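note to self — DONT lose this again. spent like an hour looking for the file last time. sequence + predicted structure for the chain T wanted, 279 res
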Amino acid sequence: MGGTMGLWTLLLLLLHLAVCVSLPAPANVSITSYNMEHILRFWPDPRTPPDARFTVQIHSTRKQRWKTVAECAELTAGQTCNLTSKLKDSFGLYVAQVQAFRTNQTSSWTTSNLFHPLADTVLGPPEVSVSGCGNCLVLQIRDGPVQLKDLQREMELNVRRTRDGAEFRLEQPYQQETVISYLQPGVEYCVSVSFKSLINRNSVPSARRCAFTSPPPPQHSLFLVLGLLGAFTLLVVIVVGRFIFSSKVKNQHLPCMKFRSQSYTCLKSSLSEGDGVTT
């Protein structure tokens, strides 16, 4: 009799465990980060009942213990968990895990990959304004979020000349105002800026901002130059034409100058030819 009761007890215990762990576990648990804002995401299993809820725990490799995130203790399918305030150690290493549950049922835990806040966050694009300074450009660069100020960052500048598409890159320490020198005056350049650091190369460049190094010549000045050039050309044509015409007239009277003894006859013939008079 005792053996039978023990067998039934074991069967009930196994049945209880089977019922309690009958929910499918979540999938694709991951932490994504943009400018030090850390968001946990996961996918519920398609077989998970609609009334199931999800709980989140985090683990720090320094503290060596799991801690439930109170704000994310009863998530529904499709919700995310903001871990920004929980992952306070920017240089620490963390792991998160998610479990599905409902009344008398739970799933196994699904863990994320190891997460490093500073190394794994994506550095967003800075805000950039550009102005000319003769043969240079002045860049005003707005700082990123407060959490990034302690990060030793460098700027990568991509400079492109609008006229022919020639471009080059510069790397230098972060400064709110920086100057790009040795450029051609009166030429338009476009610049994009992205942040880099020794432990993080995940960055998004800013939109291209364009400016002339110095103001281009106004259009009316160009028209004035072209007009003066045309007038000068016309004047040269008139002077040359008058010179050629005068030379031809002088050449027609040369015989009268050479033969003085026949001056009357020559003059008479010239007058006759010019006036159409016949003798």
